[in-house]
Design goal:
CATH topology of the largest domain: Rossmann fold
Strand content: 15-25%
Helix content: 25-40%
CATH superfamily of the largest domain: NAD(P)-binding Rossmann-like Domain
Structural class: alpha/beta
Number of helices: 10
Radius of gyration: 21 Å
Number of domains: 2
CATH architecture of the largest domain: 3-Layer(aba) Sandwich
Largest sheet: 8 strands, parallel
Oligomer: single chain
Length: about 350
């Protein structure tokens, strides 16, 4: 039977190991898998769009392990007391096709998104970055802050959101952990003096929450909110003036900030930056953008890390989802074994 890392198990793992050491471990697994990019069979995710949101499947394989994630994005959910995003994922053994590991991936996706953001910023932000602006104070905000501190040492935050209560939530959660949190009333106030800007808003709309004239030279922008067709956060003029790095170009052309630009607009895939095949930044004045929509490789890395890190612990349960009759050709026996005739 495969193992299950459920929500209580995931929460206990994060609490026990600590979010920042765990994020550092995730970065290592992400970097390892990006170095073997060509080993993976890759496709853009499969998405079903409705007026309410999107439901997606994200598959990938390296020929030995196969993974997929089920994930939704429903921006109106918080008004109904529900999460905008929920997810679960599976690792399977390619050799026999059997699933070997199931995991909740609402928390794990937040961790892997933050870890990948920090990994990209390590390569793309100017050396010595000290101030991180968060435009959007939803569920991802604290994870992003923790990852940037774990990887880049940044603990000065400037936070803004249309929901003032969400900004206060970030302050309440992060100040006890040693962050300096400035609660800002506007984007202009939040990005003033920022070395790195993370945009993470949820509306499924063609929006521009950050404009070219608001961004000073040398800034790194971590754009993670735009993740489906018709959903953007950045002014196209800002993209045109920047070096843009993406996860997987065929998917980002459909879903990312660059959906606003012509197909000939040049971008670089993150794996090329991580392996040294391309530069993340060429000088201290350059504006850099990580146009991140979320790609299946990061989920593969996160599932692989979660499986290895929790193996042999009491965080896991068995999940009986594999039909296993004594005779592999007699599946019918499973419905007759406990119901004899007579």
């Amino acid at each position: 039977m495969p193992h299950l890392l459920d929500v209580p198990g995931m929460s206990r793992w994060i609490q026990h190991d600590g979010p920042e050491p765990l994020l550092t471990g995730l970065v290592q697994f992400l970097e390892e898998d990006l170095h073997r990019w060509d080993s993976f069979e890759k496709i853009p995710r499969l998405a079903s769009h409705t007026p309410f949101g999107v439901i997606e499947l994200m598959p990938i394989t390296d020929g030995e392990l196969y993974s997929f994630k089920y994930v939704n994005g429903h921006p109106m959910n918080p008004a109904r007391g529900l999460q905008t995003v929920t997810a679960f994922g599976v690792l399977a053994d390619v050799d026999n096709g059997y699933p070997i590991f199931f995991a909740e991936m609402t928390l794990l996706t937040a961790l892997r998104t933050a870890a990948q953001s920090a990994l990209a910023a390590r390569e793309m932000a100017r050396a010595g970055a000290q101030v991180h602006a968060l435009i959007g104070a939803g569920s991802q905000a604290e994870f992003q802050a923790l990852a940037f501190r774990a990887v880049l040492g940044i603990d000065q935050l400037r936070v803004t959101d249309v929901d003032a209560a969400a900004v206060e939530k970030v302050r309440r959660n992060l100040e006890p952990l040693g962050f300096s949190v400035a609660q800002c009333e506007s984007v202009e106030e939040a990005v003033h003096g920022a070395d790195i800007i993370t945009t993470c808003t949820a509306d499924k709309a063609r929006a521009a929450v950050l404009h070219r004239d608001q961004v000073r030279p040398g800034t790194h922008i971590n754009a993670i909110g735009g993740d489906c067709p018709g959903k953007t956060e950045l002014d196209p003029a800002l993209l045109e003036d920047a070096r843009v790095v993406v996860e997987y170009e065929p998917q980002t052309r459909l879903e990312g900030e660059i959906q606003q630009l012509p197909p000939e607009f040049e971008v670089t895939e993150l794996w090329r930056v991580i392996t040294g095949a391309a530069a993340g930044r060429t000088d201290d004045e350059e504006i850099t953008v990580f146009d991140s929509v979320g790609f299946a490789l990061a989920d593969f890395s996160a599932l692989r890390y979660a499986q290895q890190a929790t193996h042999g612990t009491d965080l896991l349960e068995w999940i009986d989802v594999i039909a296993d009759p004594d005779d592999p050709k007699d599946l019918f026996s499973l419905i007759t074994a406990h119901h004899p005739a007579g």
